[in-house]
């Protein structure tokens, strides 16, 4: 898999138009993103659609960025698995881009998905215990179900609850604040 550091990407951006996609959740993207990136969340990433929307620039590299480099690496692998080799993972992600003093867009902040997930799982677990104690012992199954879901997520890397939370209205960009462009 090809990689590039943020300074080299910024230099390339100064010479020619570059295509950068940010694969974080829309709310993460809205909070802060590289000025030149457009949002294509990993959860809904369709490599064929992304490449088809590039309007004849499919021969140029597609740069993929996230917060720190892990999700963008996953996204690059998704593109490679779909037969698209000219994808480049941006090392260090948006954190490195911002730290290097490169142009970013800052907007509305919200709770990060992991924190939303912790609040939801914790609340449902406590609710199951309280209902089991005061309503019916069978409600302990709610806490067991949440615990089993967390174990499943830890073992597989896929969390259905997290995916559902990511689709909630407050985690979407509905104000058009999820676009960007990179040009020389």
TrEMBL record:
Which positions make up the signal peptide? none
Give the matching SMART domains: RHOD (SM00450)
| Keyword terms of this UniProt record | Membrane, Transmembrane, Transmembrane helix
Highest taxon of the lineage:
Bacteria
Q: Where are the transmembrane segments?
A: 141-159
Give the Rhodanese domain ranges: 14-106
Is the keyword Methyltransferase assigned to this protein?
A: no
State what protein this is by name.
Inner membrane protein YgaP
């Amino acid at each position: 898999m090809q990689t590039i550091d943020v300074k080299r990407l910024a230099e390339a951006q100064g010479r020619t138009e570059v295509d950068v996609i940010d694969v974080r959740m829309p709310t993460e993207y809205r909070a802060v993103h590289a000025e030149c990136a457009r949002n294509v969340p990993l959860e809904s990433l369709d490599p064929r659609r992304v490449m088809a929307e590039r309007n004849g620039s499919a021969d140029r590299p597609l740069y993929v960025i996230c917060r720190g480099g892990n999700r963008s690496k996953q996204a690059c692998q998704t593109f490679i698995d779909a037969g698209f080799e000219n994808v480049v993972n941006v090392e260090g992600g948006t954190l490195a881009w911002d730290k290097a003093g490169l142009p970013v867009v800052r907007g509305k902040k919200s709770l990060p998905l992991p924190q939303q997930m912790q609040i939801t799982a914790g609340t449902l677990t406590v609710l199951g215990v309280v209902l089991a104690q005061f309503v019916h012992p069978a409600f302990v199954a709610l806490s067991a179900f949440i615990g089993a879901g967390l174990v499943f997520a830890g073992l597989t890397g896929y969390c259905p609850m997290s995916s559902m939370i990511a689709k909630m209205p407050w985690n979407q960009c509905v104000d058009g604040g999820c676009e960007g462009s990179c040009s020389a």
